[in-house]
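From the thread on structure requests for the teaching lab: each student submitted one protein with a one-line request. Submission from student K.M.:

"Model TolB-like protein from Rhizobium wenxiniae, tokens only."
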Amino acid sequence: MAGSRVEQCTFKVRGGAMEDARSREPNFLEPCAEEVNTQLERILACERVNLPERARKFLRFVVSETLAGRSMYLKAYTIADVVFGRRNFDAQSDPAVRIEAGRIRRELERYYLMAGPREPVIITIPKGGYVPTFERGASFVEENPDGPLAVTPSSVTVPAPDPLVDLPSPGNRLIVSRLVIAGLTAGAVLAGLTFFLHDMRKPLLNNSDGRASIAVDLFDYPVDDRDLSKISQGTTDELIAKLVRFKEIVVIDAAADEGKPSNARYLLEGNLRKHQDIIRSSVRLVRQSDNAVIWASNYDTDLSIQSVLEAETAVAERIATAVAQPFGVIFSPDVAATGGWEAYDCALSYYSYRRMMTKAALATSQQCLTALIQKYPKDATSLAMLSLTNLDQVRFAYKLGIVPPKEALERASELANRAFAIDSQNARVLQALMLSYFFSNDVPAALEAGAASYALNPNDTEVAGEYGLRLSMSGKWDTGCDLVSKAVSHGAGPAGYYEVGMALCAFMRGDLQAAELWSRMSDLTYNPMHRMVLASILGASGKTIQARKELDWLNANAQNLMPNIKREVKTRLARPEDQDKVFAGLRAAGLALTEDPISN
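Reply posted by the TA:
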């Protein structure tokens, strides 16, 4: 059968390169069926692999079907039928197969993280489907020095596109390189390989020594409660996996470090309690320099309405978002007690500037980031932040009270691409790329960068919000507005920034009352464009006196904006019909605009 792997592992050596007996072409990366099955049994025999019998049957089934060349039939319905014995299975309403697949993915990742560098074959099930992939481990390369110098994914199955976002191809832009696609789909494979290069007792991220470090300890639980013991381990594993996606911080596994690392700036610890089906997770963040508790919260989950896996994931997401998101707990200047942590100090400087949005704060942030990059030229996250500050000189020029430097947009793009070349799997880097593309009028490339950024770290509320705004302004209002709403509901900052996005969402769907409420909740001093949006909404609502007051404010305080309103609107809203709605509202407010809203 085409595509099957039923061949035996027969190799020969020719000229120092190992070849499969059926071909003279070197084949270092694809293990044969025998090797895969041996590795599968090795995994399932491991005491540390905590999989129930149904999950084991699931894993054996998808592996055997793929080896036999029948991977195209590995759908949720087939798995439910063969593995679960479920007839008339509805994958849309029943998440059983997805939940079991998620459990298997986590256990496989955990197995490879703990196993070390000697595993001969790496088995993963990439998200987006149920077809496993098989790769050789690092030990194979060591034993075959004449082969490739590095193991790279060769049999990665690319999942179907996100059904919420149908992205066009951005042509020959860097962002559509196979590097992004392969990196996103092979994340689980590379997670295992990463630990071949790092000691388990060291930070998971270590671009420079100056990042904020968080040690994550196992959640405490009553010693005689085996169920809470498993939930503790699962929640901790989920939390580490979600925190590590925030590239501004370093994450340390306190359990692997045999205690609470004294060199970690913060310690995240908690405890679990249970009453019937309710699990309460109490968590707190401690600054280790003075043992000050700088944040604490409780999260309740009801196991009668959600599975243990869903509960663990939900709690971990909420904690990671609260603690590590931009403008979150550890990036609050009130609790940081900084000094001597260069990258962390610069990150605080950056977010402090974004809160204040003043010319002086911008200069301070850029000075800090520039000096840091001179010392650490491979610090992709700081490069991305510096890119964003250059872009702000264009998009927030009126708020900052500056004339946009001619080279600002070009500089922002250059920095973003430089950061991408260093770390293509960095959500902040891809956010910077997205915005540089968007304000260069390359909307397709911007949306693809945004999709990649959001896929890497959906718990980063700034990524979700900025991507949501770009989707909305490109005309994908339904999908984009959902993400903007998510950012607002999670308290994404700066305060009042994303509310204007919600105002535009309501305006475009014709809900003028909600649009006005959201607009007034936005920070009207953050950017004069916010007042322009309110003026258009009020004009469309027939509230001409109030609309006129907003225009009077703009004439008095944003004189450079008024002659360029049409250009600014068209820079942000991609579709002519969306531009027309804003222009019509401004005309109704009393602003004189030419009849043709498309021309300047």
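TA comment: The radius of gyration is 26 Å. Residues 96-115 form the longest helix (20 residues).
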